[in-house]
Amino acid sequence: MTTNPAALAASRELVIDGRPLRVFDGHLPNVGDYVRGLSKAAFTRTEIARPDTAEYRHWATEVKIEALVQQPIFDITRRAAMGFATAEYGYRPYRAYTNVASYGDMLFTHTDCLPDQHDLTALWYLCERWDVEWGGETMFYDAQDEVACAIRPQPGRLVIFDGAIKHVGRPPNRICYAPRYTFAVKFERVPVPR
């Protein structure tokens, strides 16, 4: 559980193979502003899941860390990530970007860091509405490649997890004409100065 009083309380908490995953709902009141901004963003097909799937690139747009830390969404993300910090280790953002997926896109399972790094991934679902029939869930797997949980898109939902948990974002189903935007902030674990 969160012990830092400045940290946000999670709506749901899970542990997958000893690694934490937390879901936060209801903390981003202006999600529509982000969706409208992303509808005008310049996405490039440059992102890959793993080196062996490099021929299947997907759409992304980068955000510079200097710009990220000025955004209200980052303060919410930072406060949620504070709940993962310990007396010995904190977290510092090192990358931020938005993925967009549509029906027919191919996305692959991957991890975001090596097992001993314990970096965090903060993943925002940026949509004004999302129907359960549209799919688009993020699937999280255990060490036996069994589905440990699925987190479905919801307007302004944030999920933060240990980057070594294997996961994949599923593209929307055929009946969905809305883009599936996920805004990711990657945090590296850093020692707390003494």
Automatic annotation (TrEMBL):
<dbReference type="Pfam" id="PF13640">
    <property type="entry name" value="2OG-FeII_Oxy_3"/>
</dbReference>
<dbReference type="InterPro" id="IPR006620">
    <property type="entry name" value="Pro_4_hyd_alph"/>
</dbReference>
<protein>
    <submittedName>
        <fullName>2OG-Fe(II) oxygenase</fullName>
    </submittedName>
</protein>
<feature type="domain" description="Prolyl 4-hydroxylase alpha subunit">
    <location>
        <begin position="19"/>
        <end position="188"/>
    </location>
</feature>
<keyword id="KW-0223">Dioxygenase</keyword>
<keyword id="KW-0560">Oxidoreductase</keyword>
<dbReference type="InterPro" id="IPR044862">
    <property type="entry name" value="Pro_4_hyd_alph_FE2OG_OXY"/>
</dbReference>
